[in-house]
Write a structure and sequence with these properties.
By secondary structure, the protein is α/β, with parallel strands linked by helices. Helix 2 runs antiparallel to helix 3 (about 40-60). The chain starts with a strand and ends with a strand. Helix content is about 40%, strand content about 25%. The radius of gyration is 19 Å and the shape is globular. The longest helix is centred in the N-terminal third of the chain and has 20 residues, at about 40-60. It has two domains: about 5-20 and about 65-145, Dihydrodipicolinate Reductase, domain 2 (2-Layer Sandwich); about 150-275, 60s Ribosomal Protein L30, Chain: A, CATH 3.30.1330.
């Protein structure tokens, strides 16, 4: 049976938080570079060039890509044959976030109560989702989610009769309303099915799928391609100033649902779409 010490988890999560906020992932950098090379608007190209310059400066100087270093969302896949020693897994994950945000000089953006808005001063608590699986591996995905884009996300309980047409309309309408304020070009995570909260969870986790990797089901892959084209046809462009690149990618996840429902959630991420994954 495999054993992992909590200190290893703390140090790993801290490193992941710093990496996610300082270095743009390869899939996102590739997507931005493709957008820059294909952008039809002069303003749009200039904005995308500035973004690429910003990524380079952040990496060289070891500073955050964006001043909003997000509220951390963590996805944990926990092998049932794995043993954690030295304390609780939950505490280790939270301490890792606090350590990373302190050592990385990252902005602390979390308040302890939605009404009594006192800063927790260490960017915890993170929002953690657990999945127990077979084996003895511990997989961790860290997604620091900025709220400029989070605030433009939406959820709707459609009727089954609305079908794929209704889902498409809701996604495109949400992108049209939100992308100028979400620092376009954006990445769009879509969750369809399950229950209200499951659809939202699917949409958020969809953002952690690398840009350009399609859903394995053909009809969902076709839906992703259609939504990408439809959203870019809006002409909103980089930072909402017009152009051909409003959306870098659309990732759709689906789940079985009730005969009487069609829940759909849209979670929007800005052009950095920070995500880091490790396996211990």
């Amino acid at each position: 049976m495999k054993t992992i010490q909590t200190q290893t988890i703390i140090d790993t999560v801290a490193e992941m938080c710093i990496e996610a906020n300082t270095f743009l992932s390869e899939d996102m950098l590739r997507g931005i570079c493709i957008a820059e090379s294909t952008e039809e608007s002069a303003n749009g190209r200039e904005i995308l060039e500035t973004m690429i310059e910003n990524f380079d400066m952040a990496e060289k100087k070891g500073i955050p890509i964006c001043q909003d270093t997000g509220m951390v969302v963590i996805y944990v896949s926990f092998g049932q044959d794995l043993t954690i020693e030295g304390g609780s897994l939950e505490d280790a994950l939270q301490w890792g976030v606090a350590k990373g945000y302190e050592e990385g000089y990252l902005r602390k953006s979390v308040v302890s109560d939605p009404f009594i808005r006192k800063n927790t001063n260490d960017n915890t608590p993170a929002v953690i989702h657990y999945k127990v699986v077979t084996g003895d591996q511990l997989k961790i995905k860290v997604l620091p989610k900025g709220f400029g884009s989070e605030n433009t996300s939406a959820l709707k309980m459609l009727k089954p009769s609305d079908g794929m047409t209704g889902v498409i309309k809701f996604v495109v309408d949400t992108v049209e309303r939100g992308s100028p304020n979400a620092c376009a070009p954006i990445v769009v995570g879509v969750g369809v099915g399950g229950t209200m909260e499951k659809a939202a969870l699917l949409a958020k986790e969809a953002l952690t799928r690398p840009l350009g990797r399609h859903h394995p089901k053909d009809h969902i892959e076709n839906l992703e391609d259609y939504l990408l084209q439809a959203c870019n046809a809006l002409g909103i462009g980089p930072m909402g100033l017009g152009g051909s690149n409003t959306v870098l990618g659309v990732n759709v996840e689906v789940f079985p649902t009730h005969i009487a429902g069609l829940p759909v959630a849209v979670n929007i991420s800005c052009y950095v779409n920070r995500h880091v994954e490790r396996e211990l």
